[in-house]
Write a structure and sequence with these properties.
- By secondary structure, the chain is mainly α.
- It has one domain.
- It has helices at 4-13, 15-18, 30-82, 99-104; strands at 106-108, 111-113, 131-133, 151-153.
């Protein structure tokens, strides 16, 4: 039969079971905390370039989509003008005079025919300003002649993930 003193001695030998505040096995030591923070820092440092790459790739997709949408609207305007749906200036070769005309639309038999809902924001510059080319401009020209809008391009001088310049897309 155990005595009161022997029970007290057995409890004293097991400090974690009766006195968790004094137990050296509970909680984190400073070394464990430093190791954990170091591992998390390494993982965060590796994730940041991946996130930046994904963001840039998404912006490039948006730029391609916006350019395609505006070029498609320019082509739709020209097709409608070529079919005689509305009159254009003689020297315009049936291309729109500016991007706002694609948004505002033209009158066709008493109805407004619109080609774009809005001029999109260039994801590379953050502005709704685009470089324009007319039929009279050189293909690689960066100055707009102002006669008509034949093509659009980004005004960004940045380089894409594939090594090309955004303003050449």
């Amino acid at each position: 039969m155990a005595t009161h003193a022997s029970i007290r001695d057995s409890i004293a030998r097991r400090p974690c079971s009766s006195q968790p505040a004094r137990c050296s096995e509970l909680g984190l030591t400073l070394v464990e905390l430093i190791i954990t923070i170091t591992i998390l820092s390494i993982l965060a440092g590796a994730a940041f370039p991946i996130a930046r790459f994904a963001y840039k790739r998404q912006a490039e997709r948006e730029l391609r989509r916006d350019l395609w949408m505006m070029r498609d609207a320019i082509d739709a305007y020209k097709d409608a003008a070529d079919k005689g749906a509305f009159q254009t200036k003689v020297d315009s070769q049936n291309y729109p005079p500016d991007l706002e005309t694609l948004v505002n639309g033209v009158d066709v038999q008493g109805k407004k025919l619109k080609f774009l809902r809005r001029i999109p924001v260039d994801p590379m510059t953050g502005k709704a300003e685009w470089g324009l080319r007319s039929m009279q401009d050189e293909p690689d020209s960066d100055s707009f002649g102002g006669q008509n809008v034949f093509d659009v391009y980004s005004k960004s001088d940045g380089t894409a993930l594939d090594g090309t310049k955004y303003n050449t897309w």
